Amino acid sequence: MWTGSYCQTAVRIFWSFDNTLQDLYNNFNGVGSNGPTYNSPGYNGAGACLWLNQTLRQSVSITSPFLNITNASFTFEVWLYPNTLYNGNPYTDNDILGQCQQKAQDQCLHIIIRSQNAYFAFYSDDLKGNQVFSAQQWYHVAYIYDYSIQTQFVYVNGYLDNSHNSSGPYQGISGALTIGTTSIQVPNNFFDGCLDSIAYVSRAKNASEVLNDATLVAYLSFDSSTLLDSGPLLINGTGTNYSYTSSGRVNAGVKLSGNSSYIQITGLTRIGTNSWPYTVAVWINPTKITGGTIMHLSSRIDGAQPNAWCLPIMGLTSIGQIAINSWNNTNVPITGPIVQLNSWIHVAATYSSSNGERLYVNGSQYGSSSSAYSFAAGGVPMTVTLGSSLLGVGACNTGTIQMNQYNGLLDEFRVYARELTAAEISALANP
């Protein structure tokens, strides 16, 4: 049996790798081997990620406590950026995480990439995914075991990649937890690249939860007088000249007024990727309707400078219509109804290369979508500014949006790295 200091059945573990190997809950803290380093930014564009060099055989180990996942359900999720991928030999792996008592059936957990596919195995109970991974791209991968139905699942970027029933359960009762290597195919198994935000929970997450983890970029509820992100990436907001109000649409909200009153979130990696689908949604309650930037997207936190990418993606026209701006200059911006003063309105905009842009007001699609097109994004983690275009005024394509200060209340701001369905938008608009 396990000979370490003690065994623990953890409920939750989270390694942020923001220049630390510590578990957020200070239980499963790691120790580096052969000098692993950090690369900034990580996936969320604000912190760091764990950078591992396979030629140096770098890894992390957690020798105590022993993580007890025997005869149990569990979920491991990770953001990964493979710098290189072994792909010429099925027995040369790119390892993410493992725990091994011995190389015997169901006693050696290995969560890896093998031959450019996700691979989830207990030893002799193996699941191979279908998604072919490419080097130098970010992926969200979830490895899930449901003990109640003895089934393994692998999800890539929020969607089911493959499953395998009549599996396991895992029965290892000893062995260190390792990150970046496992006990399988040593030494041809070290990960090369960045690992970020590895999370564990002691249950099998469902498909909706995984999709949310992989695609909810940021969620600022504005409750409890904070700009804390309630999404999985913990991209907290910053701001200036704003105030909180108890009269939000859902609990508390924020008030913007006067000049240079705004809130920002930075590090939006997916939104800076060419043609990546997205959804932005927010409740607004304007105290002035003759123009105003509701959301401004830019490659710099100042809104625009020479050689910067910038666009006000949602705002008000000079006569008070809701408008969303086009990423593509050949498309006409979509305008909605004229808003009412001192009244809550839910506004959402979606984009995908197949559907173009769509505007939703109070949960219903307003007008027709733009034509299908692919946009050229900023190519770097982006910044969303709520309430102002900052230095983007006069420097960015405005469309029909009148780029000046938004005055009024905001609540429940969300960004997704996917196109939400009409039913999902309606649910946000009817909390």
Features:
2 domains, 4% helix, mainly beta, disordered N terminus, elongated, 8-stranded antiparallel β-sheet, 32 strands, 2 helices, LamG-like, Jelly Rolls, 431 residues
Describe the structure.
This protein is mainly beta and 431 residues long. It has 2 domains: 12-214, Jelly Rolls; 217-429, Jelly Rolls (Sandwich), CATH 2.60.120. It has 2 helices and 32 strands. The strands form 5 sheets. Strands 2, 4, 5, 8, 13, 14, 15 and 17 form an 8-stranded antiparallel sheet that branches. The termini are far apart. It comes from Rotaria magnacalcarata. It holds the Pfam family Laminin_G_3. Keywords: Disulfide bond, Signal.
Low-confidence stretches: 1-5
- CATH fold title of the largest domain: Jelly Rolls
Architecture (CATH level 2) name of the largest domain: Sandwich
- Number of domain modules: 2
Tally of strands:
32
Principal-axes shape call = elongated
Q: Considering DSSP H and I runs of 4 or more, what fraction of the residues is helical?
A: under 10%
Q: What class do helices, strands and sheet pairing give?
A: mainly beta
InterPro entries: ConA-like_dom_sf, LamG-like
Organism: Rotaria magnacalcarata
Protein name: LamG-like jellyroll fold domain-containing protein
Pfam families: Laminin_G_3
Quick structural overview:
The protein is mainly beta.
